[in-house]
Amino acid sequence: MEKIIKLNTVKDYNDFLGIDTPHPLVGVIDASKIKPLHHIRKSIGFYVIYLKDIKCADQIKYGRKFYDFQEETLVFAAPGQVIGNDDTGEPFQPKGWWLTFQPELLHGTPLNRHMQDYTFFSYAVNEALHLSKQERQTVIDCMMKIDDEIKGATDKHSNLIVVSAIELLLNYCIRFYDRQFITRKKENKDALSSFEALLNDYFMSDKPSKFGTPTVAYCADQLHLSANYFGDLIKKETGSSAQEYILTKTMDTAKELLADPNKSVSDVLTMLNKESGVLGISGLSNDYRDLLEEEDAGNEAAHNALEVLVYRVIKYIGAYHTAIGGADAIALTAGAGENNLVVRGRIVEGLSALGIKLNKEANTVRGEELLLSTADSSIPVWVVPTNEELKIARETAAVVEK
Questions:
Q1: Per residue in 114-144, pLDDT tens?
Q2: Which residues, including other chains, have CB under 8 Å from residue 395's CB and lie 6 or more apart?
Q3: How far lies 303's CA from each of 39, 209, 211, 292, 376, in Å?
Q4: Which of 231, 241, 330, 372 has its CA 20 to 30 A from that of 97?
C-alpha cells in the first residue's frame, strides 16, 4: 500500500527537508542546497510553487499521474493535495527554487479574497507552466524579494510586503499562462472542436433526459483536462465561460426541439413550464430546497443549476441597472426572494460590483418585508413578500365598483 505522510505546515515541510525555518508561514528554498532525498508521497496543508531547473519527470507526481516536466517548468500545489512519488529506494538530488506559504499568511489581506482566481493551483498533470529564460528570471527575482524580507529584520510591514510579493508572482504567472495559451493555439482549437463534438453527441443521445445538462467537470473529464484548465482555455478561446458555452448549446438544442413540427402546443408548453429551468439543468428538481440539499451532498449538477440561477439573476439586475440609468432599489420576492436564504444571499453577494453588501443578520429572516442590504450599500435591496390574494381582491373590488 502506498505510504502518504502528512505535512500540515511550512515548518513540517522544512523539518522533512532538514532545513531551518526562518518564518513559520512562508519559505523560499534553494533545492540544490538540500541533502539528497528519497521519494515519498505527501499530503500538504499549504501552497507550494515549484520552479524546476531540469527535466525530472520522475521526481514529482500529482495524484496518481506524473507531471510533464521540461526545463524551467513551474508547478503549483494547494492545501489538501497529494504530491510526490512512492519510494524507489534510490535517493535523488532536487534542483530549482521552491516557494511555500500557508493560507494563514493571507488572512485579512486582499489576496485572500481572490485566491480562488488563481485557478492554476488546480491544474492537472499535463498542464504545468513552461517558462522562457526571461520568465524564469522574473520568477526567481520575486522569490528572492520574499526571501530577503523573511530573513531580514521584521517589522509591522513585513507580512504585507511578503504577501504583496506573492501576489505579484501569481499575477506574473497569469501573464505567463496567457502566453502559453496563445502559443498553444492549435492544441486549444483542437480541444474546442472536441468540446463542440462532445456536446453534439451528448444532446443527440438520451443523456439529457437521464442526467440533465452536462457539467463543466463532465466535459473536462471527457477531454482529459482538469476542470479549471478547461474552463480557462474555453474562456480564452471564446470569451465565454465553459458553463455559458454549455448553456448556449443547451438553448440552441431546445430551440430545435421546440421547432419540431411533430410537437403539439401542449408538448411545447409542458417542456417550457415544467421541464425547463433548474430542473432542465440539473435533471433533478425545480425546487431550490431539493437542489440545496443535493448540493450539500456533493451533487455537481445541483450546484451548477444553482450557480446558473444566481448568475442569471445577477446578470439581468446588472443589465437593467445600466439600461435604466441606475436603479433606485432592488426587490427580491416570491419563493427564492422571500424564503430561500442561501439563494438570495448569493444573489446579493454577487452584486458587490454595484456597491451592494449583504446584511447577514437580516438574511436569517424568512417571509417578512425587510432591508437585505447594509445601510452603507449604494442601492437598497429589499425583500418584498408577494400577496396575490390581496392583489386579486383589490382588482376584483375595482371591477365591481365600476
A1: 888 888 887 765 677 888 888 999 999 999 9
A2: none
A3: 38, 18, 14, 8, 31
A4: 231
In 259-387, which ranges are continuous DSSP H helix?
A: 265-274, 277-282, 288-296, 300-323, 334, 341-349
The angle subtended at Cα 291 by Cα 290 and Cα 293, nearest 5°, is 65
CA–CA gap between residue 206 and residue 198 (Å, rounded): 14
Ramachandran quadrant class, 96 (left: phi over 0; alpha: psi -120 to 50; beta: rest): left
- Alpha carbon distance 38, 34 (integer Å): 12
The owner of cell 415544467 is 274
Which residue has cell 445577477? 314
Residue 69 binned pLDDT confidence (cut-offs 50, 70, 90)? very low
Nearest to 188 by CA among 228, 222, 236: 236
The torsion of the CA quartet 252, 257, 259, 263, rounded to 10 degrees, works out to -170
SS3 at position 24:
coil
- Residue 131 CB coordination number (10 Å): 22
User: The pTM is what?
Assistant: 0.55
Q: Taking the CB of residue 90, how many other CB atoms lie within 10 A of it?
A: 9
Q: Among 147, 105, 143, which Cα is nearest to 20's?
A: 147
Grid cell locating 385:
413578500
Beta 330-332 vs 381-383: how paired, if at all? parallel
Q: What is the mean pLDDT of residues 267-291?
A: 81
43, β-bridge pairs: 6, 82
Residue 397: CB atoms within 10 Å: 10
Q: The cell 504530491 sits on which residue?
A: 83
Is 29 a residue whose pLDDT tops 80?
A: yes
Closest listed residue to residue 100, CA positions, set 15, 37, 199: 15
- With beta carbons less than 8 A apart as the criterion, state whether 27 and 76 touch: no
Q: Is the pLDDT of residue 10 over 90?
A: yes
